[in-house]
Queue: 3 jobs
Job 1
Amino acid sequence: MKAKILKTIIGLAIIVMVSILLIIAYFMLVDIQTKMPRQNEYTCKVEAKQFMGRNIFIITPNNVEKANLTILYFHGGSYMAEATQNHWEFLENLVNDTGATIIFPDYPLSPKYSYKDVFRMVVPLYKEIIDHIEAENLVIMGDSAGGGLGLALEEKLCEENIEMPNKTILISPWLDVKLTNPEIDEVQKFDKQLNKETLKLAGLAYAREDGIDSYLVNPIEGDLSKLKNVIIYTGTYDILNPDVHILQKKAEEQGIEIQVKEYEKASHIWIIQNEEDEKELVQKAYNDLVNDL
């Protein structure tokens, strides 16, 4: 009887392991891509263009006067997930409330791709943009992993002496995929969205073995000396919040001021998630963000 039970347990364990391996293999092969919404779903215009084999979405207002402002926006999702409906709705609101044009790249996602694939795309994309748009009219924005990507891109621009954007706005940025800050464990008690250990696995998938110590993966370690007009929106109920303060301190040591707008009890990317129980926090932060543009 015991042998039969043991055999059953071993059989189930093998099935589970094979299932996990098949899931991993599936995601290693599948190219996850952000899909363009149907035009009648939104009050702005969305056009898809190709750049290096990937979609670049150009979002412009339909019913308001266009401003002389362009936003290069990188979405979050732990470097593994495509943009969500919340992202599209957030960007629609931004376009209509500011008149800006938003360039929204569908950058390569892990685990099929790594940070190297991402930077092979976003650096040439940035160069292409500033060939056509004055840097003084350009803002880099991003949320979560996209915030980390945006900051790392600017550090790469510093390294290559490429002209910087006029302004940077980061929402709950992921600055260190290793999540080594001991204060994270304290904030974890309040963060209902993010889990430290799960995020670390996502970071490893993005970094691979050779990138885990690179500033392109962990922009908290990069050169901040040429940054200008950086604003970070962060909530105290977000495990990525403690690293924002470390980044701010490092920037000060390099003679750079980073403006941190911290909202008490706000969760991870609360401005974009727009949860019912955070309506007041969302509206306050969103109004501030629009004014900052």
Note: Residues 2-29 form the longest helix (28 residues).
Job 2
Amino acid sequence: MKRVFFIMIALMAGLLATGLQPSQARPRQEKSAADTPAKNYFTDVMLVNQSGEKLRFYTDLIKGRVIIINVFFSSCHGSCPVMMGTFQKIQDWLGDRLGKDVYLISMSVDPQMDTPEKLKEYAAQLKARPGWHFVTGEKKNLEMALRKIGQYVQVREDHSNIFIIGNETTGLWKKAFGLAKIEDIITVVESVLNDKG
């Protein structure tokens, strides 16, 4: 529980750094017995993946999972191809564990251009397998999700070059530099994957 508290504090610090006040970040909604602090924080804002599937941010992408998140846009010619190459290597390293033990989530910072159809083509170029979601959605929904993970930017080229690696079950969340050596990133992923809480 202590670890979850510190993670929530860290996430709130990232949120405040974006200029949002906590009261703005969490829309008022009726709570149900199934609501958890994590669900209340991340919310179930609706997103869509490269297959056109509607996905709730917390319930369908984060809850009970080990995830690795990066942000990108498909027409990027700077750091995105390098980071996507790293995701391909992580996919290969995971093998059959992709989509079972670990999920990859690539979130677009350009929802206007990155439609599900465009992301499907992009995923095919990267030979993405099931368990690797390329996520877009309505601009306001995607912006909300990006704010929750401290990755919202006003200009797409300003996006972060970090990977967010989280184990929602144990509450352990770490960051890794997306342009680092693959061995170093895998070490961080293993530490989160193998965390027992």
Note: The first helix runs from residue 2 to 17.
Job 3
Amino acid sequence: MKHLYITILIFTFSLNSWAQEIMEGDLLFAYSSTAGKAISDATVHDSTALPIYHVAIATWVNGRLYALEAIDEGVVLTPYDKFNERTTTNGGMLVGRLHDRSGVDQSVSNAMEHLGKPYDDLYMIDTQEIYCSELVQLSYVSGKGQRLFPLINMSFHDSDGRILDYWREHYAKYGMAVPEGALGTNPAQIASDPAVEIISE
């Protein structure tokens, strides 16, 4: 029991120490071979890349670290320890940092304005609902106020170009065709953007 207690203390210390290294506005990328598989299968076509399926924004509030994220419950502030436990249980987490941080404070402020908005199950832009990478794409600006991350043509297909059955069934529930090629964004795109440096794995 004593050894277990020491192990827990070391783990907690390591977690808290690492959290202290995370800066305001850093991007927290979740990856997994199982969780979020439909998203990563459709957006990560490089076989050597990690299957990234989610992105959140790191923000410090009253000395405590949170992940500002769009999840099923909507746009919420999740305590970092809870976010870290969730992502590492399902796979792992990467931390990305902007090369140019001159617009970080404004970017986080922009993102906070979306708190409470519902989650966008259709992954469509220009709606009141919002999804994870859309939160980042809408919010992040340079020091001159210009959007950092461009919209791209959405991908719902596998590496062979075949639209995945998951997405056909998902959109059929809403009486829609899969919006393949529509403008949007995804977590893997943001992680690989030249504006972002991955500082941890």
Note: Residues 1-17 have pLDDT under 50 and may be disordered.
